[in-house]
Structures are given as C-alpha cells and as structure tokens.
C-alpha cells in the first residue's frame, strides 16, 4: 500500500490516467454500458446459471453479443462512414480520404448551411487518427496523414452548393445509422434464435436450458411445444420489430432535418436530432441504443423464449436491466450530486433554469469532462473533480451489484418455483386420470378375480 502511494506521488500521470479514463467512460454511453454489461451482466449471469447447459448457452450468447455490439463497431462503422461518403453520396474522391470525417458532424449543426459550415471549419482543424487508420498508415508509410478537413474539396464535390452538401451529409449519416441498427440488433436477434438451436442439438432437448436440471426431459420439452411449432414465424416477427423501430428512429432523427414544416412535433424532433449522433462516428448515443435494445430485448427476447417461464425470465431480466442499464446511473448520480452540493458545498449540478420539483430532487449533473475543465480553469476547487469521479464509480458499482447478483438470484428462485409447480400439476393430473378411468378399474378387477381363481 505504501509503495502504491509513493508511485502515485512520483508519477502524477497515475492520477491523470484515472481521471482521463473516468472522463472517457462518462462521455461515452457505449463504453460505460460495456463496462456494466461485462461485470454487471455477463460474468455474474454465467456464474449463476442453474446448470452446464444454461452456462454454455449464456456464454455463447454473450460472446457473440460482445462481438456484434461492442467490438464490430470499431471496424464496421469507420468503414461504413467511408463507404457512405465515397460511394453513396460521392463526397470524397478516395476511400481513405480524411474528408470522410465530415460525417462526424452533429445533427445539431445540419439544420442550416451557415451552422454546418462554421462547425465543419471548427471540427476540421485537428483530426486525430483512429486505430484502423493507425493500422493503415503503418502498413503504408509512404502515405501522409492529413489531419485537417479539406472543405474546399468537399464543396467542389457538390459544385459549390452548400445546401446540397448539407443534404448529402444528412443522407450519409442516415444510411450509416440505419445499416448499423439493422446489423447490430438484427444480428443479435439471429443469435437468440440460433443459440436455441445449438442448445437443442448439443443437449438433445428442445426446452428452456435453465430447467434441464430440474425436471425430466419429457416435461421440459412439453413446456416448449408452442415455441417449437412457431419459431420461424417468431424469428421473422422479431426482425420486423427491429426494422420498424429502426425506421422510426431514422425518420425522427434524420428525415426532420430535411423538413421545413412548422408542425410542433416535427420542430421538436428537429431540435433534438442531435440525440441520434454517433460520438466520433463510432459510439451510438444513449437514446437510439436504448430504443434499439428495447426492441431487441422486449421484442426478440420474449419471442425467442421457449416457454412462459423463460419469457418471465427475459421480461424481468431485460426490464429491470434496461431501467438500471440506461437510466440508473442518471438517477443515482443526480441524487448523489444533489446530496454532495447541498451538504458539502460542491458545484457539480448543471444550472438549467428549470426550478421544477423534479429538478430540485434530481438535478442535471455536469459531465466529468466539464468538471475537469472548470477545475483546470480555476472556476471550482479540485475537490469537485475527486467527488465527481467518486460519484461516477459509486454509480457503476451499485449498478453492477444490482444487475449482476440481485436480479439473477430472484429469477433462479422463480424458475425453480415454476418448474416444481408444473411438475406437481402434471403428477396430480396423471394420478386423477389414472384413478378415474373406468377401463383401468375394470381391468384391475378382472386381473384380481383371475388371480384368485
């Protein structure tokens, strides 16, 4: 412990690394959700599985989920961005042109040409290389990386028409958004149904894997009869739900930017189109990630459930999980921040001018990035940075505990109760049928008489 303290004093970057990591996680919904998903869902849910079949099924699913949701965006999205800019809208001459990063512009600045041009000028001053680009330029040392946007070249690609450039950027962003949502959530749906089939082939049983150590094969399979008869229809319905949700988000997030309608709903959607942005062109924002996951979890997961017990499992696990996963940190950080500001005099609340009762209890919280900047500028004391980071990690820890251990413990008890109830019901039904059947009673009496003779 002493050594750690000495190293920390000698190497101030130790602290900087901690705060930089906290800032990055706080500013990226995808990264912070990945952290919670790993230690609050994946690992504990696999460990707390009821049997080997369920453990293997969950391991396969989560590994594929990670590959699709958390890992592929770092490869597919940079390529999709370049493809849309080069081939779909023809705004760049070369696939590796640095001008493809114009697609990273926020929807907030695509409402008109003047805002767009000012933002392109600002964001294009110093563009940094991403991992895929580092790899490309490492393999091609003769090629020089241009760290600025060539705005003149962008305008030349549309004949100098700024409005046309605005519309093409919107179309490029929309195409990437739509394809990414369909791939991410559609592939996730395929994993659910495909995983059921793998379990069926590897275990020789077609029921809910969690029940396979709790009841005989006949009972487990009987409880999955309805699913087996309609699984193809369920799979297509799940994909339809994903497609409808993606289309709705696409219309709300991008189509309104084209519209000149004075309708209040259209204007409201237009003013909030930034909620459908991708941070750095890679990280999906909280709102579409939440809506897409709700369509996936509450649509595909329920339809892929092999019986009512698994359906309840999915509903509870995903319902509680989604609430905690997407909103839990906001509520917790708001409560902790309110307490800290009132009791300890920190300045972590974001002033919004909203004096409603809700905002008094749950104030808007400053992002860690903003807190660090204000500390460095001397606007607030250093203690704010420490408390802000502490609140962030306390939120993460509480979310992981609630999702990783409290939820599966309750669900496992529910599964056992449901299976035992079904087994007892079937036993009682079989006994009643046996004792009340006249033919069986008659045969038994004949056998008795024959034996007496």
Please give a structural write-up.
The structure is a single chain. By secondary structure, the chain is mainly alpha-helical. It has a domain at 49-306. The chain is 74% helix and 1% strand. The protein is built from 18 helices and 2 strands. The chain has helices spanning 2-10, 13-27, 29-47, 52-71, 73-88, 113-123, 131-139, 151-156, 162-203, 217-222, 225-258, 264-271, 286-304, 308-344, 357-361, 368-376, 383-436, 438-452, and strands spanning 278-279, 283-284. The chain has a two-stranded antiparallel sheet with strand order 1-2. Helix 5 crosses helix 9 (162-203), helix 11 (225-258) packs across helix 12 (264-271) and helix 14 packs antiparallel against helix 17 (383-436). The chain is globular. The relative contact order is 0.10.
Number of strands: 2
| Helix-strand makeup class | mainly alpha
- Number of helices in the DSSP assignment: 18
What are the low-pLDDT stretches, counting only 5+ consecutive residues below 50?
Answer: 1-14
Helicity range: over 70%
Give me the Rg, rounded.
Answer: 28 Å
Task: Profile the largest sheet.
Answer: 2 strands, antiparallel
C-alpha geometry: globular
Describe the strand arrangement of the main beta sheet, using strand numbers: 1-2
Query: What distance lies between the first and last C-alpha atoms, to the nearest angstrom?
Result: 91 Å
% residues in beta strands: under 5%
Order of helices and strands: HHHHHHHHHHHHEEHHHHHH
The average pLDDT is: 84
